[in-house]
């Protein structure tokens, strides 16, 4: 369209908009209107589109529309960026990392219609750098690998790459890097080999040491150490120089195979090249030995890291996982105490791993003792803030998944075990039941198990049994799936 014609069209649109506004800005007397306006506040953790649809259904709204919307969007909304081909790389990263690395976006506008059958909504978002993007609002168009399952993420990442090709966009190095990362999370090592072969055949200029390392990372993470070593040999034969990152992955592969001689040779090779073992190298060695059942070598590798001042809290996790596979509660306690002796406060994941291990071993007393130790160590609480909100004519509770309740006030918090491992959930529920049974009646607590999958339903069944065994009354909270009230009656 010629510029003059474009300008004319714009002028007519502006004139039409002024006319419409003018119709509502006259001095005529006000008239009654059947228009009903609802103010709705969504809490952190609620998904935007599904919450709006649910509100419209509960309020029995047949033909409603969005007047305005402001706020900060993160987690699920970051994933909606996946529907914009021009932001395909952002989509892939949102797919892989979810809310952990997605920057919050401000909602600049949200318009559209709602009905009991669904919604048609358009959204525009802006980030801290001033970038603006928009399109159809999707309901969790893509979820993070960790939250929705790696295989699903790999399929969606592959679909995004195909969509980019069909849209005429050239897949660049970051796009392939993100797709390889999806392979890592989904343990799709064969797909990773195929992607790398495609990259090598069609875009040889994009094959760098970093891309080789990403492939090796997929293979090591997918428990394919022999394949990783074979690809590292190819990498060297093609003239790519190993850096500390490459060495760390190959060292981990050798440790996974229990090949002590090859590992020692690689360390000597690094020293000859004036490269020192980095903390990442030491972690890979510990992880490799621990995963292959070479517990003694893994422990020696950790003590070597301590001796050289390279020890870090996360290095204890592979040993705790090995203790769990052997159901060795006493050894797990040893490594938790060893961590404390080095002034490393065990992380929540470390405590949870130990509690889960005791649960798997069938030792509820040990699990409870570990849970008490974890609470004494002040790990993040499983109690989250709970608020009541009106949805139409219904009062509903909402548990804020990312807002811990420090005071644990009974009316405004809930023990959230919806995303815990089974052993941790059981230990936390037993602790809550003991607190209630020892409290002066009337005393009560809310707890949230979720009710959206089989695992959560199993936890709910166990929660009811645990509370009743302690003499605590348990009732479902009406209209709030997965939310329970435990009460010690007088």
- Would you tell me the structural class of the helices and strands? alpha+beta
Question: What gross morphology would you assign?
Answer: flat
Q: The biggest beta sheet, please?
A: 6 strands, mixed
The percentage of residues in β strands lies in 5-15%
The beta-strand count equals: 11
On the 0 to 100 scale, the average pLDDT is 79
CATH class designation of the domain at 39-182: Alpha Beta
Computed over alpha carbons, the radius of gyration is: 28 Å
What's the total helix number? 20
Fraction of residues in helix? 40-55%
Major beta sheet, strand line-up: 7-6-8-9-11-10
Q: Ranges with pLDDT <50 over ≥5 residues?
A: 1-28, 74-92, 94-102, 139-150
- CATH architecture label name of the domain at 39-182: 2-Layer Sandwich
Query: How many angstroms separate the termini?
Result: 79 Å
For this structure, the CATH topology of the domain at 39-182 is: 60s Ribosomal Protein L30, Chain: A
């Amino acid at each position: 369209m010629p510029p003059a014609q474009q300008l004319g069209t714009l002028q007519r649109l502006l004139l039409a908009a002024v006319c419409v506004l003018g119709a509502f800005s006259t001095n005529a007397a006000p008239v009654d209107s059947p228009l009903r306006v609802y103010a709705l506040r969504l809490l952190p953790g609620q998904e935007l589109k599904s919450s709006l649809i649910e509100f419209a259904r509960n309020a029995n709204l047949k033909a409603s529309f969005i007047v305005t919307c402001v706020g900060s969007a993160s987690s699920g909304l970051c994933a909606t960026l996946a529907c914009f081909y021009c932001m395909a790389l952002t989509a892939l990263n949102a797919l892989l990392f979810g809310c952990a690395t997605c920057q919050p976006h401000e909602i600049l506008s949200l318009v559209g219609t709602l009905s009991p059958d669904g919604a048609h909504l358009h959204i525009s978002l802006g980030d801290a750098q001033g970038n603006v993007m928009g399109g159809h609002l999707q309901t969790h168009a893509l979820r993070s690998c960790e939250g929705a399952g790696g295989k699903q993420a790999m399929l969606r990442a592959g679909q995004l790459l195909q969509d980019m090709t069909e849209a005429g966009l050239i897949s660049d190095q970051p796009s392939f890097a993100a797709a390889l990362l999806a392979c890592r999370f989904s343990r799709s090592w064969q797909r990773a080999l195929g992607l790398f072969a495609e990259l090598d055949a069609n875009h040889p200029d994009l094959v760098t040491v970093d891309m080789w390392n990403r492939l090796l990372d997929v293979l090591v993470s997918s428990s394919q150490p022999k394949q990783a070593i074979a690809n590292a040999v190819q990498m060297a034969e093609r003239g790519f120089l190993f850096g500390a990152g490459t060495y760390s992955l190959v060292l981990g592969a050798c440790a996974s195979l229990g090949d002590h001689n090859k590992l020692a040779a690689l360390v000597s090779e690094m020293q000859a090249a004036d490269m020192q073992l980095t903390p990442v190298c030491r972690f890979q060695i510990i992880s490799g030995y621990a995963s292959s059942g070479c517990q003694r070598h893994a422990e020696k590798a950790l003590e070597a890291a301590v001796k050289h001042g390279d020890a870090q809290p996360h290095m204890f996790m592979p040993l705790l996982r090995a203790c769990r596979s052997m159901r060795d509660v006493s050894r797990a306690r040893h490594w938790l105490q060893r961590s404390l002796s080095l002034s490393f406060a065990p992380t929540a994941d470390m405590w949870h791993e130990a509690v889960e291990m005791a649960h798997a071993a069938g030792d509820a007393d040990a699990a409870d003792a570990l849970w008490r130790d974890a609470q004494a160590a002040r790990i993040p609480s499983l109690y989250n803030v709970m608020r009541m909100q009106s949805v139409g004519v219904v009062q509903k509770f909402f548990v804020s998944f990312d807002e811990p309740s420090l005071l644990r006030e009974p009316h405004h918090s809930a023990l959230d075990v919806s995303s815990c491992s089974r052993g941790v959930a059981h230990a936390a529920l037993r602790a809550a039941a003991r607190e209630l049974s020892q409290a002066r009646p009337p005393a009560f607590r809310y707890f949230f198990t979720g009710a959206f999958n089989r695992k959560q339903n199993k936890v709910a069944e166990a929660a009811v049994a645990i509370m009743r065994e302690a003499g605590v009354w348990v009732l479902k909270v009406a209209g709030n799936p997965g939310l329970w009230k435990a009460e010690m009656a007088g």
